[in-house]
Design a protein that fits this description.
The complex is a heterodimer of chains A (about 550) and B (about 290). Chain A is of the alpha+beta class. Chain A is built from ten helices and 27 strands. Chain B is built from four helices and 15 strands. The chains are: A alpha+beta (about 550), B alpha+beta (about 290).
């Protein structure tokens, strides 16, 4: 009894002391970087405030996030060298930890990528009062959200630190150092109304404008914008309205605050090179790594793949054409093998086939407005060098990317855009299977392709030490090229020169070349961010051929 | 004794506990965290906001009842994640090439197989084995064999080539614009085409001259499945997709099978992968 009471006493004291500890910083992550760096404070930061140049005459308070200073943006300007950072709460100050400011890097305007809903309160007067989740690239912690031109209450929530993989920021048109999500409170707005959303960074620079349609009612509320209502993601999808749940989406990993993509993949029987588990793991991981911040759960996109089915063997398959002894129309197979009544509203449908009549590695039924919902992967008869996890995952993501309304060239259909770091480009899709000479003729940002720091393809060879098999869509960082003024020595990145005019050297400046082969040499070649422009409504809209 | 013995320490303990609890309460009262925990939700929400105007915006919106419930904002778990939190899977070792499988439903097919990747080759090729459905040969100076697995649209199960026959091979097995480009031309000095396979695309109606065997292939311009004209040894035939025709005479006779001929309407096609025109034909010597 005595001992118990003493233990209790000590516990009370310990708790009291713990509760009274000063708000110490364990680490700053990172602890070095240029101005505008997004920094995470690991420590006792709950309801605390961070100070920059703490304890000096230049001390200034830093803006933190929701419930305290667990994140901050390095002030701009700031002198090079170490700056003490300290957390304070009323009644106590913690230790100081230095953050070392390095040379400045180019920093563009904030880019608003995505607006979603954290919580929506539907009010009887036909209005909705919501916590908006407004996120984008290179957004400062102290940034403000503007709705229809007016600033609204804003606080930072979560971030993603980006990795340029050794590519010099100067070699990118829009280097992305981090992504950040803001909570914004626009106040009650008419349900179903369209609002114009912008972000203003702490330097006063405004982002692009994104139009967002406020939810109309609780039943159709789609918080994460994946075209699947929250109600279905939580309670399941009743396809025929008979009161019986046909697809338990939640059991399949659906979350109303994380975008979901569902795909049924039926693999043709008797293929020489059927896709294995490693292919599906690569695709799942690539989507999970998407630079999309989710308020309540893991970041990225949840892709749910049902690969349990199969279809009979056919020599060739295409979306159009009449069935023959050796050719099957995709929709003949879809009708026989896909439960469209139950799954059609939710799922994309893919047939992993032997071959395409035109030798194409795949095809999608995209309509370039609403995306698509059908795709074929068809390169089982390609040479052995293409029968790899990487090429399979890449081809699947390429065709699915079309279903998500993404183009070969980003803004256009130019299919070998060198600045577009996306599996949608032919320069990426089957790259590891190409010859060295072909790779040389199709330059890319190799560090982004191989996800390998400062990677270089010397004479087109795959860099040593590469381990990644993950495809990726573009973040939209690549430099701009002008067809009538191409400089060879700088290349795309890190002065890895490129022989743009293919004259045998890579020393020319002001080279003129019709890169996109459209018949002129006047075009600007630009990158395009796929991840922030995904269209999810393909399964509802049924693509260009219906079905 | 019992009472004393147990009572005395308890009394001491009680006093100690009382003192310590009082001290603890004092600590707690003085402690900022405790104060902070008693803060109003709006003050907690804005605790990290340095900008006075932004803080005022929040307070004003709160006072006007324009904020949704603050407790519905999730407390962030991982505050700053990495762009690629899941580390890339290690690239599996170079795939072991798999011998082609030609399905029984396929009417005609030729697929190459080599243990080592071979995109292109032109030169001597010596037949080392000719068994039904598989022709095996050695290309000059190569340390591995090249196999052609095939199925012909005839009663014949194998091409009439003797082992140790030396032929000329013109071989291309590659991908252009994400479409298969495969050309296999086996020819002898007599300009005979005992074994030929073309699966190639182009941006115009397909046209090719295979000089080694004096063969010309011309695809029609019609959209859909245009016919293909083949000229060989001065004779011409026109084939429709799926058709098989015989050309030449005697030991120079060959059969031609047009597996596919595709021409898409580029104005109507919503998405084009690969080339708009494609021809796939097989030519083989008959017994």
């Amino acid at each position: 009894m005595i001992f118990r009471k003493r233990h209790f006493t000590l516990l009370v004291i310990a708790l009291a002391l713990m509760a009274c500890t000063t708000p110490d910083i364990n680490t700053l992550n990172p602890n070095t970087g240029p101005v505008r760096t997004l920094v995470e404070i690991d420590g006792d930061n709950f309801l605390s405030t961070a100070y920059w140049d703490a304890g000096t005459a230049a001390e200034q308070q830093l803006t933190g996030g929701f419930l305290g200073s667990y994140i901050f943006t390095v002030p701009d300007p700031a002198a090079l060298g170490p700056h003490p950072v300290q957390l304070k709460r009323s009644g106590g100050s913690g230790n100081t930890v230095p953050f070392t400011v390095t040379a400045p890097v180019p920093f563009g305007a904030p880019r608003l990528d995505r607006v979603s809903i954290v919580f929506a309160d539907f009010q009887p007067v036909g209005q909705v009062n919501a916590w908006l989740y407004v996120q984008g690239a290179n957004v400062d912690v102290g940034a403000a959200v503007f709705i229809d031109g007016s600033v609204v209450p804003t606080v930072a929530h979560k971030g993603i630190a980006n990795d340029l993989l050794g590519v010099a920021p100067q070699d990118l048109n829009y280097p992305i150092y981090h992504y950040l999500a803001l909570i914004a409170a626009p106040g009650p707005i008419a349900a179903g109304n369209t609002i114009n959303v912008q972000i203003q960074n702490t330097d006063g620079v405004m982002s692009n404008t994104v139009q967002y349609v406020m939810p109309a009612d609780a039943a159709s509320l789609d918080s994460d914008g994946d075209d699947i209502p929250d109600e279905w993601e939580i309670n399941g999808y009743d396809a025929d309205g008979d009161g019986v749940i046909d697809i338990d989406l939640n059991a399949l990993g659906a979350d109303p605050h994380r975008p979901d993509v569902f795909v049924e993949v039926d693999v043709m029987n008797a293929l020489a090179n059927p896709p294995g588990a490693a292919v599906w793991a690569a695709v799942t991981t690539a989507f999970a790594n998407a630079p999309i911040i989710n308020p309540t759960t893991d970041n990225g996109i949840n892709i749910s793949l049902d690969t349990s089915g199969s279809v009979p063997f056919w020599q060739t398959v295409n979306l159009t054409g009449a069935d023959t002894a050796t050719f099957a129309n995709f929709y003949t197979l879809k009708t026989a093998n896909f439960d469209n009544d139950v799954r059609g509203r939710i799922y994309h449908y893919c047939i992993w086939a032997n071959a395409h009549p035109s030798g194409w590695s795949g095809i999608s039924d995209v309509d370039w407005v609403n995306g698509g919902d059908d795709l074929i992967v068809s390169f089982d008869d390609f040479p052995a060098g293409y029968q790899t996890v990487r090429s399979m995952a890449a081809t699947f993501m390429h065709e699915l990317g079309h279903n998500l309304n993404q183009k070969h060239g980003g803004v256009d259909h130019y299919n070998k855009n060198p600045v577009y770091s996306s599996v949608m480009s032919y320069s990426w899709q089957l790259r590891t299977g190409l010859t060295n000479a072909t790779r040389v003729s199709r330059p890319v940002y190799a560090p982004f392709y191989y996800q390998f720091n400062s990677a270089v393809e010397i004479n087109g060879a795959i860099p040593a030490g590469v381990t990644s098999v993950l495809p990726d869509y573009s973040e939209g960082m690549g430099r701009n090229l002008q067809e009538d003024n191409l400089d060879e020595p700088p290349g795309l990145y890190n002065t890895n020169a490129i022989d743009w005019n293919q004259d045998g050297d890579n020393t020319d400046n002001g080279v003129v070349r019709d890169l996109n082969t459209d018949g002129d040499t006047t075009d600007a070649i630009t990158d395009f961010p796929n991840w922030s422009n995904i269209i999810y409504k393909g399964p509802r809209m049924n693509g260009s051929y219906g079905g | 004794m019992y009472e004393r013995r147990i009572h005395k320490p308890l009394s001491k303990s009680k006093a100690l506990v009382t003192v310590l609890v009082l001290v603890s309460v004092g600590f707690l009262n003085a402690c900022a965290t405790n104060k902070n925990q008693n803060m109003k939700p709006i003050d907690k929400l804005t605790a990290g906001i340095e900008d006075k105007q932004m803080r005022q915006l929040w307070i004003q919106a709160h006072e006007e009842g324009r904020l949704p419930p603050i407790e519905r904002i999730p407390v962030p778990d991982k505050r700053v994640a990495e762009r690629r939190p899941a580390k890339p899977d290690k690239m599996p070792p170079s795939p072991t090439p798999v011998r082609p499988l030609i399905h029984e439903s396929v009417i005609a097919e030729i697929q190459p197989f080599s243990p080592k990747a071979l995109h292109q080759y032109k030169g001597d090729f010596q037949i080392v084995e000719n068994k039904p459905g598989v022709l095996v040969g050695r290309i000059r100076d190569a340390d591995s064999l090249l196999e052609f697995h095939y199925k012909l649209p005839t009663k014949y199960k194998r091409v009439p080539l003797r082992e140790i026959t030396r032929l000329q091979l013109n071989f291309r097995d590659d991908v252009r614009d994400s479409a298969l480009q495969r050309r296999i031309v086996l020819s002898d000095k007599g300009d005979i085409a005992p074994f030929l396979y073309i699966a190639e695309g182009s941006n115009e109606p397909f046209y090719a001259v295979v000089r080694e065997v004096g063969l010309k292939i011309e695809q029609g311009k019609e959209i859909g499945n245009p016919p293909v004209k083949v000229t060989y040894k001065g004779d011409s035939v026109v084939l429709k997709q799926g058709q098989r025709k015989r050309m030449g005479r005697g030991d120079k006779a060959v059969e031609i099978f047009l597996r596919s001929s595709v021409a898409i309407d580029q104005k109507k096609e919503v998405l084009r992968e690969g080339q708009p025109f494609y021809v796939n034909l097989v030519i083989y010597q008959t017994e």
